[in-house]
Amino acid sequence: MKIATYNVNSVNARLPVLLRWLAETQPDVACLQELKAPQEKFPVGALREAGYHAIWHGQKAWNGVAILGRSGEPVETGRGLAGDPDDAHSRYLEGQVGAVRVGCLYLPNGNPAPGPKFDYKLRWLERFTARASELVSLSDPVVLAGDYNVLPEELDVYNPAGWEADALFRPESREAYRRLLAQGWTDALRHLNPDKKIFTFWDYTSAAWRRNAGLRIDHLLLNPAATQRLKAAGVDRDVRGWEKTSDHAPTWIELRDGSQGTAS
C-alpha cells in the first residue's frame, strides 16, 4: 500500500497538478492539506472521475484537509481535535482505509514567534499529541501524515543558522515533535534516510527551487504496527518543478501487506 501526503496549496487552483500526480503515481491513499476551499467547493466529482473516493474537512479561504482512497471511500473516524471547543480551523481529519488508520493534519505555522500564533501552534501540538497517544498502540497500522510545519533536525533545513528564530525551527517546536516521537512513532522518511538531506518544501520566493533552498516539513509518522510493514519512503520532488504547482512536493511511504519486518 502506498500512502502519500501532499500540501496542495489550494485544491481547486492546483487541480490539474493534483490530477496529473494522482494519474502518474496512483497512491492508494493520499492525504491533502491546505485545501483553501469551503466544504461545498471541494472537487469531489473530478476526483471520483480520477478513481478516488474522498472525505474532507473544508474551510473557506484557508486550511482544509482531505483523505483520498483508491480502493473505496475512507471511513471517517475523527474530525478535529479535542481540547479546544473554540478552535474552528479545519486542520485534522482521521479515517480508516482498509486495515490502516490514517490521520491527516495541517499543523499551524506559528509565525511570528513568539506571539499568539506561536502559542496556538504549541497548544495544537499538545492536543494532537494527546490524540496520537490514543492511536500509537493500536494493533492495526496507523499513519499520521501531513504538513507538520516543524523542522525536526538541522539536516531538515538548507540553512539552519538562518531559521533559528522561525516558529518551524524554534526549540519549543522541535521538542514537542520529539515528545510525539517518544510515544513510539517512527518518522518514516528519516528512518530510511538517516543521514540524507531531503526536502519537501521550497518557497516561491528567492529562487528557492532553483537553489534547492528547501525544508523538510511534510512527515509521515508510523506506529509500531505500521513500522513493521515499512518498505520504502520518498519524495516526488519533480512535481515541485511542474507549471503552476504547489510549493510542497508529495511525500510518500509504501507498506508491505502483512507483518514482514522493517526495511533497513
TrEMBL record:
Coiled coil: none annotated. Mg(2+) binds at N7, E34, D147, N149, D247, H248. Belongs to the DNA repair enzymes AP/ExoA family. NCBIfam families: exoDNase_III, xth. GO terms for biological process: DNA repair. This is Exodeoxyribonuclease III. GO terms for molecular function: double-stranded DNA 3'-5' DNA exonuclease activity; metal ion binding. It holds the Pfam family Exo_endo_phos. PANTHER family: EXODEOXYRIBONUCLEASE III (PTHR43250). The record marks H248 as: Interaction with DNA substrate. Probably binds two magnesium or manganese ions per subunit. Keywords: Hydrolase, Magnesium, Manganese, Metal-binding. Its cofactor is Mg(2+); Mn(2+). The active site is at Y106, D147, H248. The record marks N149 as: Transition state stabilizer. It comes from the Bacteria. Residues 4-248 form the Endonuclease/exonuclease/phosphatase domain. The record marks D218 as: Important for catalytic activity. It comes from Limnoglobus roseus.
